[in-house]
Amino acid sequence: MSAREDTLARIAQNRPKGDHALPVVPNFAPLVGDDLEAEFGERLKRMGGRIAVPVPGEDPFAAVRERLDGAAVIASAVPEISGNRDLAQVARPQDLADVDVAIVRAVFGVAETGSVLFTQRELQVNAVAYLAQHLVVLLDPADILVNIQAAYRRADFAQAAYAVLHTGPSATADIEGVLIHGAQGVRSLTVILCPRGTTENATA
Amino acid sequence: MTNADQSGLREPAAESDRGQDGRPLQHAEAATQPVAVKAPREAQPRGAKIRGDRPIDQAEAAERFLAAPLHQKAHDARLWDLRSKRDTAAFGIPEWEELRELASQIKTHTLANLDRYLLEFEANAKANGVHVHWAADGADHNRIVHGILKDHGAKTLIKSKSMLTEECGFRHYMAGTGIEVIETDLGERIQQLDNEEPSHVVVPAVHKTRLDVAEVFAKTMGTDPENDDVHYLAESQRMHTRPLILNADAGMTGCNFAIAETGTVVTCTNEGNADLSGNVPKLQIHSIGIEKLIPKIEHLGVFIRLLSRSALGSPITQYTSHFRAPRDGTEMHMVLVDNGRSERLGMEEFWTSLKCIRCGACMNTCPVYRRSGGLSYGATYSGPIGLIIDPTFNKRKYSTLPFSSTMNGSCTNVCPVKINIHEQIFAWRKVLAEEHQIPLLKQGMMKAAGQVLSRPATYRAAIGAADSALKVLPRFAVYNPLNTWGKGREMPDSPRQTFHSWYKQNRMKKDGAR
Q1: Is the N end or the C end of chain A the one with fewer CB atoms within 10 Å?
Q2: The pTM is what?
Q3: Chain A residues lying within 8 Å of B186, measured CB to CB
Q4: What CATH number is given for A31-203 in this structure?
């Protein structure tokens, strides 16, 4: 018998008897208050991320302008800003190893945890969100969901080839509990609250 | 040394990265209490001696760990800190107990219908363009993965941390194949470079101090042996590993949850290394223990809320990644590994251990684990969960482990999927005794204790002669060289008078003899 048939046969024989119904998961009351923007920002900061709320009429990228100005290679996956590394032209993920700043838009945010979701569609090249030194995320405040339960009711997870929740930057405390950002992935993650399709194209 | 106070301890807040508002952060595995181990250097205690199938002498290894007080104290403090962070996170959610119950029931349901859910997972993964493999055991898993790598002419493999691949002995197997395996989780990489197994399922190098890490990195990566700054060590590892990631021919991850309805593999990590492993090389492999199945995406809404809070006290890991289908022009393989799980499903007293989501909460709370170190167990899984899983792999080799417990039940109380861990530890003791798997000395001890305890008169005579039960029986039972948990602990001072003699003296006189 193959390993497959063997395992399946043994499970059929050994599985716990009785009717173990799948429980219905109730809708739990949100842990956060009504101001989802503020709740999201506070939790993101606790997870090592940064939050920026642009002043209307001023540079939406003001919070990261210094970083952008100092960057040699910028990969932008959003129309709001143009970089100098075209993700559509990237042949291999490895070619993004020199990216200083990547800019992507989140599908949604989660207030309970300060997380943002990306799929392969937003990232264009998945690896850019890890190989870049710094990640800048655009998030429409209208796209902030109240909690993780609400996030997992979204269809994105079943449809995307790759979907990922980022909550702050890459982090480790594997040595004596000392927290360090940029373990293997991005050293910083900044979320700019920025409605979809309202910002004029700016140049980096 | 930087930021050291007079005792040599450095506040993690002084060293850890800070938040946007300048406040210290405590996410990921970050400590809230100082654990920095001061000089003078203390040699790192090593784990249990492995002698083929012979029973692991956990007590012996624990004794060596206790004999290294700097390591032992730092280890104890660090894990208790994680346990405290877990409590704070759990208390912050009113429905915590309900979530635990739901998680437990979802796992029960899935395990009771595991064949059906595995078939559903397989069908969906195949429909997503994924190559699905089935491995009967660890050796089978290693052969399958080796075969995939050979077929693609792969010479290097980057991987993220996976307890399953540890269980399969994957790295050891690959050492003889000419294909280089590179661990990319910082803690796991430290362990790989030091030729040691991970000592904890979540924080693999938690038993090491920064001085130990500095020594390992100096030897293997050429870093400055005198520089034990944690930022320097972590950054050196990043710079050293980055080219290995970029040039790897294949990437590999484990699996925290496998979703039947979509064929998705979910990984929960803090460093982003699983996402690099899955998104940079052209070939990606995901190894999945068959018990990782859960029915639907919506159930992640229960498990994700429990996992990182139980493990680290943070609301979620930095990355929660959902791998469903290959990228354009790449290949994706999933290996479903049994390795004794379908057998364990039939063990009436022990099958619920298959619910485990590897959060490590039971380890962090366990007084034996905190004071003996994960490597003292000489097994892939250490701590309370290890005590009940390891004997299913090898009854003889791990026959002594279920005795490394105080039976305080704390493990059961913190388990996010409500496994009755301490009851299973007790049940294993019975099974191993009945099957004569426990060492003769321990059998003799239990037999003698049983004889004394079963005869009230003998018991009273025994303790009367010594004036105290604690002076006879518990010393005999507690400080027996094979009874690990008595090591390094002193029992409270025994009362000058036994309860029985006090009762006889004070009550029997007044109330009349009974």
Answers
A1: N
A2: 0.89
A3: 172, 174-175, 183-184
A4: 3.40.50.10420
